[in-house]
TrEMBL record, chain A:
Protein name: ABC transporter permease
Residue ranges crossing the lipid bilayer per the database entry: 33-52, 72-98, 154-174, 186-211
Biological process according to GO: glycine betaine transport; transmembrane transport
Positions of the ABC transmembrane type-1 domain: 24-208
TrEMBL record, chain B:
Source organism phylogeny: Bacteria, Bacillati, Actinomycetota, Actinomycetes, Pseudonocardiales
Cross-referenced PANTHER family: OSMOPROTECTANT IMPORT ATP-BINDING PROTEIN OSMV (PTHR43117:SF4)
Coiled-coil ranges per UniProt: none
Keywords of the record: ATP-binding, Nucleotide-binding, Transport
Descriptive protein name: ABC-type quaternary amine transporter
Record bears the keyword Transport: yes
EC number: 7.6.2.9
From TrEMBL, chain C:
Residue ranges occupied by any ABC transmembrane type-1 domain in the UniProt entry: 21-204
Organism: Actinophytocola xanthii
UniProt name for this protein: ABC transporter permease
Sorted UniProt keywords: Membrane, Transmembrane, Transmembrane helix, Transport
Family: Belongs to the binding-protein-dependent transport system permease family.
Gene Ontology, cellular component aspect: plasma membrane
């Protein structure tokens, strides 16, 4: 255990392009890039499906189907099908990040009180205005919940992606493993990397929770909390799925 | 016999739910605990089967302190019915009713046979036995709850607001059924309600509790209405208590006067002659009342008395004292007050008109009863 | 990438594939079973005491958040296991299962109507008997739902263990990747997905079979 912490706090490992700070930035870079792409696809799609009620099967099908797909398999398959580089990895990460955001947005829109939506129509709002001004703001807690789950999923999978030569914090684990457990850069490096990844995930989770609190209208927040705890469960990798009960 | 001896329940936060309760529940009777919320009536009930243990005093069941009994064993010998029935949603109706026989070691077959008997006893058709509780109506669920409580044939039955979650019509039905069951089974029943009318209707003895867990009065329903112990009881019993007390006096002493009757389908001209004080009762072939006619209504009929055009009558009251089903003074007075002719129609056991009473005659009969000491004044 | 007609490769390696599949099932399912066994008493405690819930539920949230590869890597540090020990994968999977199910079990037990538990006590059930025959059966639908998510996730997460040298179908994935053998890679992925979905379907069916009352209720549209 001491060896792991010695490795972690060695000043040598905190500078340069392969140091811990650089790897953290890389990791956050991949993560935000992938989540942004995924959100750009999944939020509008989820909003339209939730608003129109058409294509519901897509939401359930995607989250159920993708939960069984091993992340490692998806990454290696895409890299093998294309080439070793950033693009296939980011595509994998986007694929994994879409379902939770889609499910979050969809259930967020669906959970908006029907009376509120009726009232909006009754006041003469157009369908698009209802979606943008009424449904989406009310759905925000679940949309953000989906984004939070997707972000944690991507942080976890980006770590695994070091195996297919991606940078980021997974490098320490993979490189340590390749160096052999006995070597000074072996297990201590792996454990140090794992600790940093775990801490990063917890910090990001906390930060996103704070963002959620700051952004969501207090009137919506309380109402959403009840619905969320009852209807949504998170899977181990942080994916929001609709509970099949 | 259930005896409460100076029973007190105080919660750790200092709230006193029951304060020095002394009370004896008689065997084979329905004893009702009634009072506003927070009066300790439910707490008192739940102390009998040790769902709650008192902090002071003792409770004796047939002379034995219940603290000496193992709670689960004690409870298996005491039936318990609660609001919403509390049926097990994961077991069929039959298995719900078979619960206690199974707990006490009866075989599955015997327990289910017993359960089927009980479903019949509470008036449920056999086909509900295989259903699950949520597939039943509220009233049916409550009947299953009663059947389940009776399954082990316990001598004591505790009922905690059992009928308060069903609609008034169903409630009336369930109350009648409970009285019918009790006349057959002679259980010692303790019944909790917040509804004084329910208490008076079904109780042999009624204990009125006041907030703070003190017993305000313990008496028969008629005594409670006639002589409330204090202002709290009198206001709890309600404004109409004098009128409602008439419900406990039979109308056998009320003289029944002849009343004008005309047959339905008879000639209008004859009917007009038969009117007394401007009114007559229209009857069918069995002399059962159909409604009233006056000179005005007759003038709108041509030829014969039309049963479709009658003035609807008031309530009826029964005077067949030989069958023991005589109506009360309350029924008689209500019949007089609700009649368009101000004459209450008295009928016999078969429903045939035997005469009429006015409010004055009813009140005169009441005054006579008071004078002779039949009624506490 | 090299994807040949798969039969020759499959035929040659059938034994290895079978062995890896067996190993994968052992690695994935045992922790879920252990997790289930631990979650029931923990969930019961969380449903019963507010303090227990206040500790267990946030802790479950934190454990959930830790990425799988990190948790797998940290087990030897925490437990002193060897670097390639099946426990390194099984302990994290059990942790994820517990983190998921403690909350399900506790919510499900807390949702049992009070009048039902009161009625059971009043009829003379002893506490343990009442928990096993009244409360736990009523919680089964929610527990099975959580279990299905846990088992499918465990099947796919087990593959990550291959990165630190632990067997199962994940090893066929890394091997196929390193040897540029598309058939091996696709077969391993397909086996994981199909097995996960089959187990999921089995759990769904078993769950339905042991809770006949749920369907009866849905049929009438009545609520409990």
């Amino acid at each position: 255990m001491n060896a792991a912490f010695a490795w972690l706090f060695d000043p040598e490992h905190w500078s340069g392009p392969t140091g811990i700070p650089a790897r953290i930035l890389e990791h956050l870079g991949y993560t935000s890039l992938s989540v942004l792409f995924a959100a750009a696809i999944a939020v509008p799609l989820g909003a339209v499906i939730g608003h129109t009620g058409r294509g519901t099967f897509l939401v359930a099908g995607l989250s159920n189907g993708l939960r069984a797909l091993p992340e490692l398999g998806l990454l290696t398959l895409l890299v093998l099908l294309t080439y070793v580089g950033l693009l296939p990895v980011v595509i994998s990460l986007v694929i994994l990040a879409v379902p939770p955001i889609l499910a979050g947005t969809y259930s967020g829109i669906r959970n908006v009180d029907r009376a509120v939506v009726d009232a909006a129509h009754g006041m003469g709002m157009r369908s698009s205005t209802v979606l943008l001004r009424v449904e989406l703001p009310n759905a925000l807690p679940l949309v953000l919940g989906g984004i939070r789950a997707a972000t944690l999923q991507v942080i976890a999978t980006a770590t695994i992606a070091a195996y297919v030569s991606l940078g980021g914090l997974g490098r320490f684990v993979i490189d340590g493993n390749n160096a052999g457990p006995g070597s000074p850069d072996g297990y201590p490096q792996m454990a140090a990397g794992a600790i940093v990844v775990a801490v990063l995930a917890l910090v990001v989770e906390g930060a996103l929770a704070l963002v959620e609190r700051a952004v969501v209208s207090p009137g919506v927040r309380d109402a959403a909390r009840a619905g969320r705890s009852a209807r949504m469960r998170r899977r181990p990798t942080g994916d929001v799925v609709e509970n099949p009960i | 016999m259930i005896e409460f001896r100076d029973v007190t329940k105080q919660y750790p936060d200092g709230t006193v739910a029951v304060d020095g309760l002394d009370l004896t529940v008689e065997d084979g009777k329905i004893t009702v605990f009634v009072g506003p919320s927070g009066c300790g009536k439910t707490t008192s009930l739940r102390m009998i089967n040790r769902m709650i243990d008192p902090t002071g005093g003792s409770i004796l069941l047939d002379g034995k302190d219940i603290r000496e009994s193992d709670p689960p064993l004690l409870r298996r010998g005491i039936g318990y019915v609660i609001q919403h029935a509390g049926l097990f949603p994961h077991r069929t109706v039959l298995d719900n009713v078979a619960t206690v026989p199974l707990l006490t070691g009866a075989g599955k077959r015997a327990a289910r046979a017993r359960a089927a008997e009980l479903l019949e006893l509470v008036g449920l058709p056999q086909e509900v036995a295989r259903r699950y509780p949520p597939q039943l109506s509220g009233g049916q669920q409550q009947r299953v709850g009663v059947a389940r409580a009776l399954a082990a044939d316990p001598p004591v039955l505790l009922m905690d607001e059992p009928f308060s979650a069903v609609d008034p019509v169903v409630r009336d039905d369930l109350q009648q059924q409970l009285l019918r069951l009790q006349s057959e089974l002679d259980k010692t029943i303790v019944f909790v309600t917040h509804d004084i009318d329910e208490a008076i209707k079904i109780g042999d003895r009624v204990a009125v509790f006041r907030v703070g867990g003190r017993l305000a009065q313990y008496d028969t329903p008629s005594a409670l209405l006639a002589k409330p112990a204090d202002d709290f009881v009198s206001s709890f019993v309600g404004r109409d208590r004098g009128y409602r007390a008439l419900g406990f006096l039979t109308a056998t002493g009320v003289p029944v006067a002849p009343v004008a009757t005309v047959p339905a389908g008879g000639e209008v001209a004859r009917a007009r002659e038969a009117l007394v004080d401007g009114w007559a009762v229209v009857v069918d072939e069995e002399r059962r009342p159909l409604g009233w006619v006056s000179a005005e209504t007759l003038s709108q009929m041509d030829g014969s008395v039309d049963a479709e055009q009658l003035v609807s009558g008031g309530s009826l009251f029964e005077v067949d004292s030989t069958a023991g089903t005589a109506g009360s003074l309350r029924n008689a007075l209500d019949a007089a007050l609700s009649s368009p002719a101000a004459v209450g129609i008295a009928v016999d056991g078969r429903g045939a008109v035997v005469g009429g009473v006015t409010a004055q005659t009813v009140l005169a009969a009441l005054a006579d009863a008071r004078r002779s000491g039949e009624v506490p004044g | 990438m090299n994807i040949d007609w798969p039969w020759p490769w499959l035929e040659r390696n059938l034994d290895d594939i079978a062995e890896a599949t067996g190993e994968h099932l052992f690695l994935a399912l045992l922790p879920v079973l252990v997790g289930l066994a631990v979650s029931v008493p923990l969930g019961w405690a969380a449903s019963r005491w507010r303090v227990a819930r206040g500790i267990l539920v946030p802790l479950a949230g934190v454990l959930y958040t830790i990425p799988s590869l990190a948790l797998i890597t940290l087990v030897p540090l925490a437990l002193g296991t060897r670097i390639i020990d099946p426990l390194n994968v099984q302990v994290p999977l059990a942790i994820y299962t517990i983190a998921l199910l403690v909350r399900s079990v506790s919510d499900a037990l807390a949702a049992v109507p009070r009048e039902v538990t009161a009625a059971a006590t009043a009829l003379g059930y002893r506490p343990v008997h009442q928990f096993l025959t009244v409360e736990l059966p009523l919680a089964v639908p929610v527990i099975v739902a959580g279990l299905r998510v846990a088992v499918v996730s465990a099947m796919s997460l087990t593959a990550v263990g291959a990165l630190v040298g632990i067997g199962g179908l994940g090893q066929l994935i890394t091997e196929g990747f390193l040897r540029n053998n598309g058939v091996e890679l696709v077969v391993a992925i397909a086996l994981i997905v199909v097995l996960a979905l089959v187990i999921d379907a089995l759990l769904l069916l078993v769950g339905r079979a042991v809770t006949p009352w749920v369907r009866a209720q849905r049929g009438t549209g009545a609520s409990a």
